[in-house]
Amino acid sequence: MADKVHIVLLSTDESKPLPARIVRQANKAGGLFNALTFGDIMLRNQLKNEKK
Fold first, then answer.
1. Distance set, CA 23 to CA 1, 3, 16, 19, 38 (Å)
2. Which residues pair with 36 in a beta bridge?
3. Average pLDDT per block of 10 residues along the chain, 52 residues long
4. What pLDDT, on the 0 to 100 scale, is given for residue 45?
5. What single string gives the DSSP state of each residue in the chain?
6. What does the pLDDT read at residue 50?
7. Contact call for residues 23 and 12 (beta carbons, < 8 A)
């Protein structure tokens, strides 16, 4: 089981090249569950900021 996970939040705009589609990225230690929880928080914050 992995103990370090790299999380990447990508834009769904396929007209942009891949490097430009990266909204946010992070490394998380502590296992997959912690990384998924952190990724969920990142996504919810991004969606909340886009609604403003």
1. 27, 24, 12, 9, 15
2. none
3. 86 94 92 89 92 78
4. 94
5. --SEEEEEEE---TTS-HHHHEEEEEEEES-HHHHHHHHHHHHHHHHHHHH-
6. 86
7. no
